[in-house]
Design brief:
Layout: H1 4-9, H2 15-25, H3 30-38, H4 46-65, H5 73-94
Length: 102
C-alpha cells in the first residue's frame, strides 16, 4: 500500500483540470467545503479526508475517461480542489513548527 504522499505524486490528470483545481484551492475552506463532499458531522483528519477524496476522484476519473453520461465536470473539479487544499494543509501540518535560525 502506498502512503498518501506517493499516492498524490502519482496522480496525473489533464492540465486544465489541475489548473482549475489549483486556482480554486486558493479559496479552499475546510469547514465549508468538506462537509458537502464527505457528509456532515465530525470532519476527518487531513490524511483520512485525503484518502476518501482520492477514492471519490478515481471514480470520477473513470467516469470521465469512459464518457459516462453521469459524469459531472463541476463535481470533479470540486473534489480536486478539496484534494489540493487538504494536501497543502497536510504538508503544513507535517512540516512542524519552523525553526528560527540566527
Amino acid at each position: 500500500m502506498q502512503d498518501i504522499h506517493s499516492l498524490l505524486a502519482n496522480l496525473h490528470r489533464p492540465r486544465l483540470l489541475m489548473r482549475a483545481a489549483r486556482i480554486g484551492a486558493q479559496d479552499y475552506r475546510r469547514t465549508g467545503h468538506l462537509p458537502r463532499l464527505l457528509g456532515y458531522g465530525v470532519l476527518p483528519r487531513h490524511g483520512a479526508a485525503l484518502m476518501r477524496l482520492v477514492d471519490m476522484e478515481s471514480d470520477l476519473e473513470e467516469q470521465r475517461i469512459g464518457a459516462d453520461a453521469c459524469y459531472s465536470l463541476v463535481h470533479h473539479v470540486d473534489v480536486l480542489i478539496a484534494i489540493v487544499g487538504e494536501a497543502r494543509a497536510l504538508r503544513a501540518a507535517t512540516s512542524g513548527p519552523q525553526q528560527v535560525q540566527f
